[in-house]
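RECORD TYPE: inverse folding
INPUT: structure tokens
STRUCTURE:
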């Protein structure tokens, strides 16, 4: 099938090349001509594991191309994936400006029949508004079906998630649209593709058939927001439990592991820390709350999820202040800037919030991240960015773990301790086990866990 992907942000730039890897002919287009030129020259505007190889293979095979000519892409293709951004407005609602603009452009350009697929995360009833816009501005020049096909791609593992999804959700209004969507995803549904993540056939890399869920458009739109909000709820619940553990002397890691072993609950997203960030969870949570409010439902539960998450930075800063006493004049090393590992995305990163608050309190910050340094050089101009994780410790009064990059565990912590003013680590992601850094002489503080104490064997009774 000939497919047009409008928008080369994270969703579009992952979806388009992966569709090409399934055998479709894909044109990715964007109004940002500089980004298109970068892609045409072989560059990548973001870091995402395995994606450069997928793009390169698609271009080489002649199935993937990039253009700034949106109208040409619309005219040339049978199916159009709308993957433009829906950033939050000042009131927390998702902005529909780009969605409406693309719908009008499709309506004014298209002819014949088009399958228009909404991939962006949008409030419920967006499909109805898109349908009205397409019908109004096309003036009957083309026939179309509208589909809601929410994405469930995790940054850092987006390519894996595309080829190994738990479910594929399609909100449709006609059997024709349902059949065409089934045709688009047939290789993933049937396990007849070569997996670029594993470099093997689908059957050889542990592929399992995903659930194929067909709903109406409103339901599909709600599923995406409901999923992200529920995952946000799990994270905030874990952080609330961690606070309770700190007050009672319990170990949050043990409590949450016991909780996650319940098959009805599961262990995913039950890790305490400095809170969730990135663009999706905070944006989608806020948009879901505001959407519910607009239709007359006060989502008090999710408002509390927001409040708990917002308090995590303050909680971590308080932990640092309790130990360091005065922040002003201190030098603090920060390990991690991205909101999570395996991405260079720093949007709404808790690491940034913590760094900026420490700067406000008078600290000098030295920081390192394996992938986010280029962005941080523009976004955190007053932070000293260094070339390695070990360098953040030089002359530091403390080192903070703000992103759980696994390579931070492999740093030369013995040498780092020797270069510090004081050997203190504040682990905002519980990357290390209590006691793990003891052999290097570090005082170690984490989230929801008491200092490690080795259990003594009970003496045998006689």
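DESIGNED SEQUENCE:
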């Amino acid at each position: 099938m000939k497919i047009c992907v409008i928008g080369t942000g994270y969703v579009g730039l992952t979806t388009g090349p992966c569709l090409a890897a399934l055998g479709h002919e894909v044109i990715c287009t964007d109004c940002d001509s500089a980004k298109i030129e970068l892609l045409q020259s072989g560059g990548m505007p973001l870091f995402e594991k395995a994606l450069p190889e997928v793009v390169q293979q698609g271009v080489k095979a002649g199935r993937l191309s990039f253009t700034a000519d949106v109208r040409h892409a619309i005219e040339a293709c049978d199916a159009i994936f709308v993957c433009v951004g829906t950033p939050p407005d000042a009131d927390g609602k998702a902005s529909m400006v780009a969605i409406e603009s693309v719908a009008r452009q499709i309506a004014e350009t298209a002819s014949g029949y088009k399958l228009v697929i909404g991939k962006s995360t949008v409030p419920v009833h967006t499909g109805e508004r898109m349908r009205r816009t397409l019908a109004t501005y096309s003036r009957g020049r083309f026939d179309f079906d509208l589909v809601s096909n929410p994405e469930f791609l995790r940054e850092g593992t987006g390519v894996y998630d595309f080829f190994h999804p738990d479910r594929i959700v399609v909100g449709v209004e006609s059997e024709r649209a349902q059949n065409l969507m089934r045709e688009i995803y047939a290789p993933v549904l049937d396990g007849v593709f070569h997996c670029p993540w594993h470099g093997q056939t689908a059957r050889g890399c542990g592929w399992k058939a995903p659930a194929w869920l067909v709903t109406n458009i409103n339901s599909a739109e709600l599923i995406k927001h409901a999923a992200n909000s529920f995952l946000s709820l799990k994270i905030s619940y874990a952080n609330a439990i961690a606070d309770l553990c700190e007050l009672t002397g319990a170990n949050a890691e043990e409590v949450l592991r016991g909780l996650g072993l319940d098959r009805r609950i599961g262990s995913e997203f039950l890790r305490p820390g400095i809170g969730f960030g990135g663009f999706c969870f905070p944006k989608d949570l806020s948009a879901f709350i505001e959407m519910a409010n607009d239709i007359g439902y006060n989502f008090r539960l999710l408002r509390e999820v927001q409040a708990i998450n917002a308090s995590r930075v303050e909680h971590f800063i308080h932990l640092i202040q309790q130990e360091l006493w005065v922040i002003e004049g201190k030098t603090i090393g920060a390990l991690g800037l991205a909101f999570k590992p395996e991405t260079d995305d720093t949007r709404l990163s808790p690491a940034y919030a913590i760094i900026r608050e420490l700067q406000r309190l008078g600290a000098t910050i030295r920081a390192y991240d394996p992938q986010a340094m280029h962005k941080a050089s523009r976004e955190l101009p007053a932070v000293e960015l260094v070339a390695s994780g070990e360098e953040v410790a030089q002359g530091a009064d403390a080192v903070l773990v703000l992103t759980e990059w696994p390579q931070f565990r492999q740093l030369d912590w013995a040498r780092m301790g020797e270069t510090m003013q004081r050997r203190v680590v504040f682990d905002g992601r519980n990357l290390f086990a209590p006691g793990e850094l003891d052999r290097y002489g570090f005082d170690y503080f984490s989230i929801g866990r008491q200092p490690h104490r080795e259990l003594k064997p009970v003496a045998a009774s006689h």
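NOTES: The first strand starts at residue 2 and ends at 6.
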